Amino acid sequence: MKQTFKLVMTLFLVFSLTILAACQKQETSTETEDGPVTIKVLHNWAGSDGNAPKDAVNNPVAKKILEETGVKMEFDFPKGMSEVEKITQVFATGEFPDLYTGPAWGKESETLLKAANEGQLHDLTEYIEKYPNLAELVKKENMSPSLYDSIISKQEGGQFMLHASYPATDDDVINWLYGLYVNKEIADKVGIDPQSVHTPEDLYNFLKAVKDENLQVNGKPVFPLGAGGSGWPLDIMSEMFVPVAGSSSWMIDDNGNTQLNFMTKEYEEYILYMQKLRNEGLLDPEAYTQTGAIAEEKFTQGQYAVVPNQFPGLWTGLVKAGLQDKFVPLGPLNDFNGDPHRTEVNVTGSQLIAVPNTVSKEKLDAIMKMLDYLASDEGFLLTNFGIKGVHYDMVDGKVQAKKEWVDKLKEDPKALINEGIGSSYGTLAGLYRTVSLAGGAYGYQYDERYKKEEEFKKIMSPNGIKPIEGKDPYNVYQGHENFEQIQPVFDTLGDVVLQAIHAKSEKEALDLIKESREALKSVGIEDVADEISKQAKEGTEFMRYRTSN
Questions:
Q1: Which run of H or of E encompasses 221?
Q2: Bridge partners of 307?
Q3: What Cα–Cα distance (Å) separates residue 487 from each residue in 109, 118, 311?
């Protein structure tokens, strides 16, 4: 009897272990087939690692994305290099991410287009047809005309890119409020109303009055005009002289006659104006050569009376330095035609999204399912506002931030980022719907920043902002037969402008400008200008004005 019992128990144990092993094997198989998919995302924005949560896996937003889509994301950032350098490195080495997101302009977009047309990216057409949220991201009306003309329409044999962060409605267009801002205590000291400064002469006289005060802070000089790292964004001042900022932009008059900015008398006057400011000590002599950290330190310590900036960046610096009540708009400065309030901007989305063709079909399916979710209203609210009931409530159909989180932000500016809100995930969240869907930015009901922003809008852009219309002349240049021989000279213009600004004499600056102008002529720049002129006179509506935004 005992022997029989032992045999039965032994057989039962063996059977149980067999069943357990089978179950464990089945569980392992299920995890492989249906479990989380981890994807590596190249978030190609220099400095964006500072906007990443401490824990990219266990924050609330990441957990919700995993719950809804079965996808985990690991982010890579272009640390120590520019966006162009990073994307160039990726395609040169073949070390591809599973998912790419980065700038929708410049060499970054051109490199992505080249990769698409060389068969290095997945064709996303079948997913665009399957997922309505993704279909919205490739509609012509949901991107700037220049992006459509120069990149999206030039894809060959498929749709290889998604375009994200384009404003869903006119209300969602961000007014960045680019301009000059002044320490109002210093303006009071020199006795000049900041809002009376409009012309280049007004600005020169204001800066000269500041210099004549010989102001110091903590034993260090106060510079009348400063800048961010590498002179950013002093170039906005060129809008006083030309309709579109930048040496490689184009000036088109009312009759269609066209010249490259760098070839015009007006842009020459801008260069000489900046040279004069620097040589007379009205501009920080290190403005164009300093790092961002050094520029921030000078601003924080009060060494700059006037700075060029956009409002969100300015406000971040003011809060960090405890200077929220110190700076106000200077001017605004007149544009090329003497209008201080013109705000015609190139409305764009900021992201191009693509999947290298090295990614498996199984992983591609998971990525596209995730992108469709993130592009939905739910996904947008999640990545930009967090978890309903935890980070915000819905009141009358709009988002109302939890007051406790608004208060946490005052103590820790990264409080929401570490929750996954407003961080790297947001660049994948489809059309930009902050106003139309949520009512405004997170915490706008409580945050002093948004009250100040509205005050500055009334000064700087009382008529609101207007999206520019017309074809970008750059697209004619890019398609011209002389493009390849001109581009190497184009690539040097930024350095030439800086050399001229740093020249010790006006003659030296003019000689540098003349030398580069001759080089441009020798490679056919005037042929390009003639072609743009021809098209303009035949009725093509070109973009003639563009203010920084």
A1: strand 220-221
A2: 181
A3: 16, 22, 33
Give per-residue pLDDT as tens, 193-207.
999 999 999 999 999
**Which among 510, 516, 519 has a CA at the least distance from the CA of 496?**
516
β-pairing, 37-43 with 99-103?
A: parallel
**With contact defined as beta carbons under 8 Å apart, do 226 and 304 qualify?**
yes
Q: Show the tokens assigned to 170.
A: 């006119």
Contact 111, 87 (CB under 8 A): yes
Q: Rounded CA gap, 217 and 210, in Å? A: 14
Residue where the block lists tokens 């990726």: 90
CA distance 194 to 119: 55
E strand residue ranges, 28-109:
37-43, 71-76, 99-103
State how far the alpha carbon of 166 is from the alpha carbons of 113, 170, 433, 477, in Å. 19, 10, 9, 25
Q: Looking at the DSSP assignment, which residues form a beta bridge with residue 392?
A: 388, 401
HEC per residue, 416-473: CHHHCCCCHHHHHCCCECHHHHHCCCCCCCCCHHHHHHHHHHHHHCCCCCEECCCECH
What's the rounded Cα separation, in Å, for the pair 427 and 349? 10
Identify the band that residue 320 occupies on the pLDDT scale cut at 50, 70 and 90: confident
Tokens at 63, concatenated: 């957990």
Neighbouring C-alpha atoms within 13 Å toward the C-beta of 503 = 20
Which residues are within 8 A (CB) of 204 and not within 5 positions of it... i.e. 6 or more apart? 273, 276, 277, 282
Number of Cβ within a 10 Å radius of residue 22? 10
Instruction: Look up the pTM and report it.
Output: 0.79
Residues 439, 399 contacting (CB under 8 angstroms)? yes
- Going by the DSSP 8-state scheme, the letter that residue 167 receives in this structure is B
Query: Which one-letter amino acid corresponds to residue 305?
Result: A
Separation CA 366–CA 372 (nearest Å): 10
Q: Which of 506, 460, 511 is nearest to 274 (CA)?
A: 506
**Helix residue ranges, H only, 137-291:** 145-150, 184-190, 200-212, 265-279
Find where tokens 């989380």 sit. 36
> Tokens in use for 239?
């809008």
Q: Nearest 5 degrees, angle CA 203-CA 209-CA 212?
A: 140
Phi-psi bin for 244: left (phi > 0), alpha (psi -120 to 50), beta? beta
Query: Model confidence over 359-385: pLDDT tens digits?
Result: 999 999 999 999 999 999 999 999 999
